[in-house]
Amino acid sequence: MDDKCILKLFFCRDEQAISEAKIKYESYCFKIAYNILGNIEDSEECVSDAFVLAWNSIPPNSPEKLGAYLSRLTRNAAINRYRKNSAQKRGGSSITEALDELKELAIPDNAVEQVLYKELMGSINAFLESLSVKERNIFLCRYYYGFSIRGMSETFKMHESHIRTVLSRTRKKLQRFLAEEALNE
Predict the structure, then answer these.
(1) CA–CA separation, 35 and 140 (whole Å)
(2) Does the N terminus or the C terminus of the chain have fewer Cβ atoms within 10 A?
(3) How many Å is the Cα radius of gyration of the chain?
(4) CATH architecture of 94-184
(5) Angle, in degrees to the nearest 10, between helices 16-37 and 66-86
(6) Binning pLDDT at 50, 70 and 90, where does residue 153 land?
(7) Residue of 109, 98, 97, 95 lying closest to 42 (CA atoms)
(8) Which of 31, 57, 62 is nearest to 46 (CA)?
(9) Which of 15, 18, 21 shows the shortest CA–CA distance to 1?
């Protein structure tokens, strides 16, 4: 079933919407959650939470791309679960490293800055479009999907040091891009 039909089911409040969305996107969402959490049970729970959030938020929300919407809900649920789990125990994981790498961008995360969020996302999307396909895929795999450097090395058939170099250069490009955007406003 295509996304438009599934969204119609959501808008009609037909519970089949969840079943159809799960058929189409559950494994995709699980992969996102598992990359962040590394735990099957927590990942399954985050995916389940994401589908409940979708049910509760569609309508009034009407996402253009259901897969992207569900992936964002899943990713947010997984990051929240990760933060909750790691509050008691500190350890180095792939997502911890990825989030630490992005700290140098100094992107604010308080509620007052929510007004600027859409502008920032627009700028980041414009930046991503300016990258080569390889750079964009590496960047998204690391910072959106939470892949480990080792996993990316295997996926892209590249040495880990090369992956790290591409990520470092891309972060620096993003930092310059965002600084230029701020100057142009």
Answers:
(1) 13
(2) C
(3) 18
(4) Orthogonal Bundle (1.10)
(5) 40
(6) very high
(7) 95
(8) 31
(9) 21
From-to residues of CATH 1.10.1740.10 in the chain: 3-86
Query: How far is it, in rounded angstroms, from Cα 6 to Cα 100?
Result: 37
Helix axes 133-143, 160-184, angle to 10 degrees: 90
Give the separation between CA 87 and CA 176, rounded to whole angstroms.
32
Max Cα-Cα span within the chain: 51
pLDDT digits (tens, 9 = 90+) for 4-55: 999 999 999 999 999 999 999 999 999 989 888 888 999 999 999 999 999 9
Residues contacting residue 67 through CB under 8 Å, at least 6 positions apart: 3, 24, 25, 28
Q: What is the 3-state secondary structure (H, E, C) of the chain?
A: CCHHHHHHHHHCCCCHHHHHHHHHHHHHHHHHHHHHHCCHHHHHHHHHHHHHHHHHHCCCCCCCCHHHHHHHHHHHHHHHHHHHHHCCCCCCCHHHHHHHHHHHHCCCCCHHHHHHHHHHHHHHHHHHHHCCHHHHHHHHHHHCCCCCHHHHHHHHCCCHHHHHHHHHHHHHHHHHHHHHHHHHC
Fold of 3-86: Rna Polymerase Sigma Factor; Chain: A (1.10.1740)
Query: pTM (2 decimals)?
Result: 0.65
